[in-house]
Description:
The chain is of the alpha/beta class. The chain contains twelve helices and seven strands.
Amino acid sequence: MTPLDDKLRKLRAIIEGYGSLLVAFSGGVDSSLLLKIAADTLGDRVAAFTDASPLHQSWELAEARELAAGLGVRHIVLVGDELASPEFAANPPERCYLCKSVIFGEAAKVAAELGLNEIADGSNLDDLGDYRPGRKALAEMGIKSPLVEAGLTKAEIREASRELGLPTWNRQPLACLASRFPYGTEITRQRLQQVEACETFLRDEGFTTFRVRYHGDLARIEVSAAGLERLTCSPLRQKVSARFKAAGFTYVTVDLDGFRSGSMNEALHNPDIS
Length: 274
């Protein structure tokens, strides 16, 4: 038995111990594995919920619906509007704490209505190494993180997902669109739509790892190292520039450091970054 097998066995035991479970399900790599294992372990004693708000790409919800249906899991869509909170829209460093407090507060109501004992999110062991104020909200509300408890890293989650035949095993990490904005930059519906339009364009062009970071008139594109050359070569370079400017950006730049999750948090550690 491999170390991964041991961790998956531990994960199943943890989930079985819950008795019943509501899974926070984005349709991404981590939550998809969690939902798959939970469904296999608990059967009809598991349900999933997805937050559908302007902070998420429209295609994310469609893919989450499809995967939940394929797993035979009851799927609840919570329609939220975090932008209704001026405190959240102001985009402070604790933005994620504010967001998760609201979302999981609504999830707690769903779990109570369905008679489910616990609520779990898809945080993994690697998430503990970054600035994630949302985890404080989860701890305060008693939300479980079984992937963390089982000691699963992102790489192990991908490997297990591939072995289980999940289509999410090689997808890029998902993050809400609010993560595209520097802290202190107001988040508005129009700006979210601007970023979403540009990211959808990159997705349609075949990029699988990307972010479009919002810096006022300037868009900063992050793609994988493998995608940098393609992005900056003609004729795609001109096509990208034209599409981004049509979306409302004046300047279009490419980040030479490439894609990295949580790159906006770099400014918290280095105040000279703007």
